[in-house]
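Researcher: Quick sanity check before group meeting.
Model: Go ahead. Protein one:
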Amino acid sequence: MFALNLPTFDCKIKDSGSGQQIFDPYRRRYVALTPEEWVRQHFCHYLTQEKHYPASRLANEYRIRLNGQQRRCDTVVFDAGLQPLVICEYKAPTVEITEKVFQQILRYDWVLKARLLIVSNGLRHYCCLMDYERQQSRYLEQIPDFSELS
């Protein structure tokens, strides 16, 4: 798989009849090992191990209803009151992060109203802090530790 700009970790990978699978500890099952999934697993590991986000508050492939259609956010992190705090959108390392990617996460945020939006292709990471009262957003130099958000 691809080398990423994220810490490596000891992931569980197995072969199945349809290809390789990686264990997702947040969904508690093996899932298809796609380039995007490789980024998701590494990024979630980074959030929990390096940035101290509680693993119990991460939800992968979180379903929402947007304009009458079912959509899935790649990862949503919840606060202590189980309100969305962070939305993460992942792309494969070969996919460039463009305005279109940001538009996708902003559409999800119309529904969830998270405080932090993160977009990553595993090589480049972008983080945006939302301020709904002032109707402003601010890009951050780095992804904050969980303690900085609570």
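Researcher: Fine. The other one?
Model: Protein two, sequence then structure:
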Amino acid sequence: MPVVLSAPQPRTDNGDYPPTKKWTREECEALEQAGLVGVRDYELIGGVLIQKMGKKLPHTRALRKLMRWLNQLFDLCSLQEPGIDVAREENATNNPEPDAVVLRRSVEEIAGSIHPGDIRMVAEVSDTTLSFDLGAKARLYARAGIPEYWVLDVNGRRLIVHQQPEAGEYGSIQAFAEDEMVQTPLTGEATIAVRDLL
């Protein structure tokens, strides 16, 4: 489970939590410039600074395999962009950094930050953060209208493909087991066995 830096706080005598601070991208940039927070140490999700977990060997291996395959299909596949934009109304308090991003055009053509309209697909490789990736992050990406979201579940040895974002949720969520072949509208005629990504 990700480590949350701003909550929970100790309970007061009446059982309620004291007020917590919601962070913005602007404030996080100021923290980085002051050297108080490392640029790759956290992710900003819903105004909460979430410390990134160290990547274990199975995570690193799966991410390399996923990137190798995606790079064979797409020229515009990128590893861990330094944060992407989400829905306009949520952008100030969210700066997610997916493990992989497939873009519609090259990074050199994109001025400023990467907007949802620039993105064909995002992917997370998940070992210790599965419920977070399938919950909060899936809803965040769906509200941004990102057409396809993959979660490669290392421990469960499966791939969960989210498609058809509408009204803040993905209308289609399909889990592919280790021995199944994956093919989606994004990949066209190309297929791959889930086991070859793990």
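Researcher: One line on it for the slide.
Model: The chain has one domain: 54-197.
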